[in-house]
Design a protein that fits this description.
Elements (H helix, E strand, L loop, with lengths): L1 H18 L10 H5 L1 E12 L5 E4 L5 E4 L6 E6 L2 E9 L4 E6 L2 E10 L3 E8 L6 E8 L1
Antiparallel strand pairs: 1-2, 1-3, 1-9, 3-4, 4-5, 5-6, 6-7, 7-8, 8-9
Length: 136
């Protein structure tokens, strides 16, 4: 009887230990991957018909994707700080609403310490595209 109880206890421990895995790396959903504060390394702005204009981020430049009920986004860029919202779509795309603009964003690269995405300003004429290179 003691062997059976010990065997059942060991099986339960094995099931409990393997059944509750924390999502890490590539398995995590995009929302979990982008949460937190990212420093702006570089921004590239392209307006249709014009040359790309680069901007190298400084220490005060950041994007902070908050994990709250409103999915707030705090952005400090080029000396201007703005609060907006973001929403992750079913794919690896997401939208940002910031300063009266809606940005349709596509994830180019995301790792634990590198996040690159391309944002198209919805309804802008001429077309405006921004590419962000963020790091942690």
């Amino acid at each position: 009887m003691k062997k059976q109880v010990t065997l059942v206890a060991m099986v339960l421990l094995i099931i409990a230990g393997t059944g509750c895995k924390k999502e890490t790396g590539a398995a995590r959903p995009l929302k979990k991957k982008i949460e937190g504060k990212w420093q702006v390394a570089r921004e590239e702005v392209t307006i249709a018909g014009s040359a790309m204009v680069p901007y190298t981020g400084v220490a005060e430049d950041f994007f902070e994707f908050r994990n709250d009920e409103n999915d707030q986004l705090d952005v400090s860029l080029r000396g201007k700080r703005t609060l907006g919202t973001y929403g992750v779509l079913a794919t690896d795309d997401f939208n940002i609403s910031l300063s009266g603009e809606v940005l349709n964003c596509t994830t180019n690269t995301i790792t634990d310490n590198k996040f690159e995405f391309t944002a198209t300003v919805n309804g802008a004429n001429p077309k405006q595209t921004r590419k962000y290179f963020l790091t942690r």
